[in-house]
Design goal:
9 helices; globular; about 15% strand; Nucleotidyltransferase, domain 5
Length: about 260
């Protein structure tokens, strides 16, 4: 799935032969899974030096490879017996420490004001990640509601036009905003969001647990459990790779494969 969308390597210049794309991708995945620093990537594994993998990650992110791969995987899931649940979408956010600072970092209100970032996530009704936005840790969740919804890519795979709008959006009291409710309705999305100062909507937690489950999967990748990249584009590239892997694992489930034509 990755190889056809990779940009071609630049024309060769005098010097050693470039590391193949497959090995660089394996090195990126090794760093993502283990959290090892780029400069400590073992050469004996054959992935090439960490700087080479880092630069290839940068070039692929600039070319939009990982966003395109995520869309392809979502389309595959949508085509596989309608695995995507468009009846509802769930939103939430989670803090991570930012050890080296950088763009989109700030004092965390839940970690003694230590420098951190926040992952804002929207999933479908089954917990499949649709879009992730990284901001400073002190950014309010409610400010990213519409950006998350509008950032869902158009997903093909079924008869008709590609789809990108869920029927309803589920959120906790951190997303309570009348202007946002108005904008969601204008987009044809029913807001199901608890109001501050009032009891939670009954049964909402039983439907929203999937977004917490997806956060647990996302932060199992050690390079994302703590943010080490100072550059936001490289951190977002790794987040996109992780979302693609979560979709790929869902696509490879035996029960789902049995339903695929």
């Amino acid at each position: 799935m990755v190889e056809p969308i990779l940009p071609p390597l630049p024309e060769r210049s005098p010097g050693p032969k470039p590391v193949p794309d497959r090995l660089c991708l394996q090195g990126i995945l090794f760093v993502l899974h283990t959290g090892i620093p780029w400069q400590q990537l073992p050469l004996e594994l054959g992935f090439g030096p960490g700087q080479t993998c880092w630069r290839r990650l940068e070039r692929w992110q600039e070319a939009g490879v990982f966003a395109q791969l995520h869309r392809i995987l979502l389309s595959e899931l949508n085509a596989a017996a309608g695995e995507l649940d468009w009846t509802r979408a769930c939103v939430d956010a989670s803090h991570v420490r930012a050890k080296k600072g950088g763009a989109a970092t700030g004092p965390s209100p839940v970690d003694r004001r230590k420098t951190g970032s926040k992952h804002h996530l929207i999933t479908d009704g089954g917990g499949i990640p649709l879009n992730v936005i990284t901001t400073a840790a002190n950014v309010n969740d409610v400010t990213q509601t519409l950006a998350l919804v509008d950032g869902v890519p158009p997903v093909a795979g079924r008869v008709g036009h590609p789809r990108k709008r869920p029927e309803a959006l589920l959120g906790d009291k951190g997303y309570d905003s009348n202007p946002n409710r108005h904008e969601l309705r204008r987009r044809g999305i029913l807001p199901v969001i608890s109001r501050k100062g009032q009891p939670d909507i009954q049964g909402l937690g039983r439907l929203r647990y999937v977004v917490e489950q997806t956060f647990a999967l996302l932060h199992q990748f050690k390079r994302l459990a703590v943010r080490w990249e100072r550059r936001l584009d490289l951190h977002d590239a790794l987040v996109s790779v992780a979302c693609g892997l979560i979709c790929w694992r869902r696509l490879r489930r035996p029960a789902l494969q049995a339903r695929r034509p």
